[in-house]
Design a protein that fits this description.
Number of helices: 4
Helix content: 10-25%
Main location: cytoplasm
Catalytic activity: (2S,6S)-2,6-diaminopimelate = meso-2,6-diaminopimelate
Number of strands: 18
Bound molecules: the ligand N[C@@H](CCC[C@H](N)C(=O)O)C(=O)O
GO molecular function, one term: diaminopimelate epimerase activity
Radius of gyration: 18 Å
Oligomer: single chain
Order of helices and strands: EEHEEEHEEEEEEHEEEHEEEE
Strand content: 35-45%
InterPro entries: DAP_epimerase_AS (IPR018510), DAP_epimerase_DapF (IPR001653)
Protein name: Diaminopimelate epimerase
């Protein structure tokens, strides 16, 4: 039997098994299968997926995220806050502001320690990418998709697409309680017009600085929160003239609140919690 040490952490209930790859040595070709195993609630630990905290050539630390179906994502907002907390608390970094490498580029994290422990982290997520080829979505239009008609079956919806390093599609609803998470979510996630799949988000506008948000995540299904998705929802809401640029917007997710600003300088700043659940040894064959 083989084993590795893990820490389970969550950001607003979006929970992952974190593995410190400065100390552990998991085989590259087994990462996808290990993510599926640890995420299983019956025979594993139970989680939305697995996140690796890795050495980097260009930053003090690098994050890799695997969804609970074993697919590798390119970014994870809640994961970034937890990686920042872990890196600071475990001495991987000594500064309160530092860069984290992701598969979609570098971001900057700022931790707010109290007695050596971190509970709140702000991440400068960089600029959203809006061009259709950067989402990617296969449509004739080359520039951004904002409130564009989108046919699913016989129903026409209106969508806005945003990449925060990973793909998001936003649908607006009058009442978040009606979000068709398990019906529209999986169909749109795998729609061939999104060649890499997509994270599907439903948003209700409460006020010009307040949104309600629910998500069907690519590769993981319903989760309590999606940090990149909440950032994408704030960007989409500015593009749709529902909220204001450079003004902090409170996003109410199933697991709690995130505070997000799309700054006039271009980047999206996300502030929110990061918590440790437990740590231990995971055994596998
Ligand atoms: N929960 C995450 C996003 C995780 C990756 C996503 N499912 C993808 O495949 O792009 C977040 O907090 O951003």
């Amino acid at each position: 039997m083989r084993s590795f040490q893990f820490t389970k952490m969550h950001g607003l209930g979006n929970n992952y098994i974190y593995v410190n790859m400065f100390e552990e040595d998991l085989k590259e070709e087994e990462l996808s299968s290990i993510a599926i195993q640890v995420a299983d609630v019956h025979t594993g630990i139970g989680s939305d997926g697995m996140i690796l905290i890795c050495p980097s050539d260009v930053a003090p630390v690098k994050m890799r995220i695997f969804n609970n179906d074993g697919s590798e994502g390119k970014n994870c907002g809640n994961g970034l806050r937890c990686v920042a907390k872990y890196a600071y608390e475990h001495g991987i970094v000594q500064k309160e502001t530092f860069e984290i490498e992701t598969l979609s580029g570098l971001v900057e994290a700022n931790v707010e320690p109290e007695d050596g422990k971190v509970h709140i982290v702000t991440v400068d997520m960089g600029a959203p990418r809006l061009a259709t080829e950067e989402i990617p979505i296969l449509v004739d239009k080359q520039d951004r998709l904002v409130n564009e008609p989108f046919l699913v079956g016989e129903e026409t919806y209106h969508i806005t697409t945003v990449s925060m390093g990973n793909p998001h599609v936003i649908f607006y609803l009058d009442d978040i309680k009606d979000a068709p998470l398990t019906t529209l979510g999986p169909i749109v996630e795998k729609d061939p017009r999104f060649p890499e799949g997509v994270n599907v988000e439903f948003v209700e506008v409460e006020a010009e600085d307040e949104l309600h948000f629910r998500v069907w995540e690519r590769g993981s299904g319903i989760t309590q929160a999606c940090g990149t998705g909440a950032c994408a929802a704030v960007v989409a809401s500015v593009l749709n003239d529902k909220t204001e640029r450079n003004k902090e917007t409170t996003v109410h997710l199933a697991g709690g609140d995130l505070f997000i600003t799309w700054t006039t300088e271009g980047s999206v700043k996300m502030r929110g919690p990061a918590e440790t659940i437990c740590a231990g040894t995971y055994y596998y064959k």
